[in-house]
Amino acid sequence: MEKKYVLITGASSGFGLLTTIELAKRGFSVIATMRNEEKKEKVIELCKQFQVEKQITCLQLDVTCKKSLQHLSEHLNQFPKIDILINNAGFAFGGFCEEVSLQEYKEQFETNFFGVIAVTQAVLPFMRKQKQGKIINLSSISGKIGFPGLSPYVASKHALEGWSECLRLEVKPFGIDVALIEPGSFATNIWSSGKRIAKKANNTNSPYDLYMKAIEDQLEKGKEEMGDPKEVASLIANICEQDRLKALRYPIGKGVKLAFYLKKWFPWTKWEQLFYKKLLHKKV
Ligand SMILES: NC(=O)c1ccc[n+]([C@@H]2O[C@H](COP(=O)([O-])OP(=O)(O)OC[C@H]3O[C@@H](n4cnc5c(N)ncnc54)[C@H](OP(=O)(O)O)[C@@H]3O)[C@@H](O)[C@H]2O)c1
Fold first, then answer.
1. Is the CB of 87 inside a 6 Å radius of any atom of ligand 1?
2. Which one Pfam family would you cite for this protein (predicted)?
3. Does the Cβ of 185 fall within 6 Å of ligand 1?
4. Hey, which residues does 181 pair with through a beta bridge?
5. Catalytic-residue membership of 153
6. What distance in angstroms lies between residue 8's CA and the mean position of ligand 1's atoms?
7. What CATH number does domain 5-215+226-253 carry, 1.10.357.10, 3.40.50.1580, 3.40.50.720, 3.40.30.10?
8. Is the C-beta atom of 120 inside 6 A of ligand 1?
9. Which of 152, 157, 177, 263 lies at a CB distance of 3.0 to 4.6 Å from 143, suitable for a disulfide?
10. Measured between alpha carbons, how far is 22 from 50 in angstroms, rounded to an integer?
11. Which among 153, 211, 250, 276 is annotated as catalytic?
12. What span, in angstroms and rounded, lies between the C-alpha atoms of 93 and 109?
């Protein structure tokens, strides 16, 4: 089999790290990019445990940094081709709409949305010349459904969904397929070290304080039900192995398909009632 080259962002932890290893195990050559070069050793160490270190090339890439993106563009020529791009880097920013500053919204979009656009624009010319390629974007259940207290993240993933639909329609004639992975909750760093909260949300005088506690209770309860991130890595690797991608969206995780079904077919008033009942245990 001809060697396939995959470029992945945010390979230092979570889905990115597990996908890197899974793809290397399946014979792909992985360009594992990460913003913090100090984490490279940990990644290589783990690859050695699976005897796949020869399949991996580590590159520094902060998807929000102009210089770093420039560096990526210069380095792409050293690879014979880029068959697959996995836009995985991201983080979750929480807070209530009234309290999240514009700057905080912008920071969320810089990584989760503009970062994806920048890396895709760097890679697309190579894929177009090759007349083949796959672009796999890590969206979320939050790309289809809004949750209170998570509007920066939800908005960034909704934007990613819309942009990916446009991209898919534009690049299909060049032999390039676009896919969106839509995970529910999985046990990675995103809910701990990766999570950031609006400065104002830490204020106990916030009018949304009670609401915040209900959400935190839900998140705490939900921890036990979080999926194993290896399932997502395995799904992404399966997609990478396919010839062409018929589907645009790949939902994964407990309750995700049901939630999408209810959101699509229930009238909004019913959907809202369900939401408040589950979150605040009362009618609003
Ligand atoms: N876990 C879930 O439940 C879940 C559900 C739905 C969607 N997702 C999506 O899955 C993707 C991966 O998240 P994860 O759950 O694996 O979380 P994670 O363990 O926190 O990993 C996130 C990765 O993104 C990297 N990153 C963040 N900002 C970056 C930047 N500016 N440039 C380059 N890399 C950056 C992080 O690097 P550092 O190590 O340097 O921080 C880390 O490697 C995200 O897009 C997330 O939105 C996750």
1. no
2. adh_short
3. yes
4. 138, 250
5. yes
6. 11
7. 3.40.50.720
8. no
9. 157
10. 10
11. 153
12. 10
Q: Does 158 sit in the ligand 1 pocket, CB within 6 Å? A: no
Q: Report CA 172 to chain centroid distance, whole Å.
A: 22
Q: Name the least confident of 113-117, 188-192, 266-270.
A: 188-192
* 173 Cα–ligand 1 center, Å: 31
**Taking 90 as the threshold, does the pLDDT of residue 11 lie above it?**
yes
| Model pLDDT for residues 111-134, shown as the tens digit of each residue | 999 999 999 999 999 999 999 999
Q: Mean of the per-residue pLDDT values for the chain?
A: 94
Rounded to whole angstroms, the Cα distance separating 119 from 62 reads 10
Tell me how far apart the alpha carbons of residues 254 and 83 are, in angstroms, rounded to a whole number: 31
DSSP single-letter state for residue 198: -
The finding on whether 161 has its CB within 6 A of some atom of ligand 1 is no
Q: Which residues contact 109 (CB under 8 A, 6 or more apart)?
A: 152, 155, 156, 159
**Residues pairing with 85 in the sheet:** 7, 135
- Residue 133 near residue 236, CB atoms below 8 Å: no
pLDDT per position as a tens digit, 156-179: 999 999 999 999 999 999 999 999
Nearest CA to ligand 1 atom 19: 14
What CA–CA distances, in Å, run from 283 to 67, 150, 270, 277?
51, 21, 11, 6
Q: 264 C-alpha to center of ligand 1: Å?
A: 27
Give me the residue spans of the domains in the chain. Answer: 5-215+226-253
189 CA to centre of ligand 1 in angstroms: 8
